[in-house]
Amino acid sequence: MTDRLPAPGTGQVPVLRLGDVLLVTLQGDLYDGTAEQLQQDIGEAIAHHTATGVVIDVSGVEIVDSFLGRVLAEIAAKARLLAAQTVVAGMRPAVAITMVELGLTLPGLRTALTAEDALRLVTARPTLPRPGGAQAGSR
């Protein structure tokens, strides 16, 4: 089931609901006001729809600066407080290199090559340890 959530604010960045997961696709530059509104929209959507995961697709982003890095880290921190995990998908090699050069770390964020891979990460059931230390499904 896919729902486009009504944006409480400006609605400049759509937040789509795919079952228990929110999908956000960033295109181009993310300005201060839009970023603040996006953080609020994601927090409200997690709480309202009891989402367990947030996938942020950055494949349409050409340049990452310290501002965008901070925004992504803040979204992940807020989502974690609301019991949802965040995965950033589609980061271009040049963007990853720039983030490393800027010394940006993204605590609490997992990454995936594609949005499809990210969806698999946030919907995967964690394996519980079995008595004796063996993982479920391992031999």
Task: Write a compact overview of the structure shown.
The chain is an alpha/beta fold and 139 residues long.
Task: Explain this structure.
This protein is of the alpha/beta class. Helix content is 38%, strand content 22%. It has helices at 32-49, 66-81, 93-102, 115-123; strands at residues 2-4, 15-18, 21-27, 53-60, 85-89, 109-112. Strands 1-2-3-4-5-6 form a 6-stranded mixed β-sheet, with helices on both faces. Strand 5 (85-89), helix 3 and strand 6 form a beta-alpha-beta unit. The protein is globular. 25% of the residues are buried.
Order of strands, main sheet, comes to: 1-2-3-4-5-6
Sheet bearing the most strands, described?
A: 6 strands, mixed
Structural class: alpha/beta
For this entry, what is the oligomeric state of its chains?
single chain
Number of strands: 6
The secondary-structure element order is: EEEHEHEHEH
Fraction in beta strands: 15-25%
